[in-house]
Amino acid sequence: FQQIPGPRRVFLALFEVSPVLFFWEVLRSFLRVLAGFVLGSAIGFPLGVAIGYSRKFNYLLFPAVEIFRPIPPISWIPLTVLFFVHIESQIVFLTFYGAFFPIVYNTVSGISNVDIQLPRAAMSFGVNKTQLLFRVILPAASPQIFAGLKIAVGITWLMVVAAEMIASKGGLGYLTWYSHTVMNYPMVFVGMGTIGVIGALCSLGIDRMGKRFTKWMDIF
Question: Which pTM was predicted?
């Protein structure tokens, strides 16, 4: 317990690291998370909509997704060396993989749990299938979809830290692990705290965005 630094020692460690270096490490991790999260959303969301809205796509695509889902994202780390030449591509793939499944499953679940009375009422007014999807089903499913996005962004931070620790290619994960190897435990706490704060801010940003798309909930 003698090696555990107190709050004062951790606070002073903030002023021992170069602000410019620390900023670039934070930015490097954030950009990796952003790339993986955007890719996971761009692929996972349409796939989730297709599986949740179309019975045909559900039969065709859901079994393949279900096969890969139980595989832990961290277990892909050794194989990324074979699949990707550049370390940046390896890290982005891992963050993408971590974000992909929560987005897909929450989107499918959100669409599947929409009250059947809503589409029936909309169809009685003569809306077509496209209007039904974009004006009724997706808005009704949006709370659960954004819940999946919040889960996904948390997993992307977990994956980027794990990948950076192993790849030793900069970022908050590498900075935290390097501080551990040189027994600079105050900086370990600084790195962990920074990851927690930025991760929380990312979740808050998604939460704010979700509220803009779910203004209809304020009626109830």
Answer: 0.89
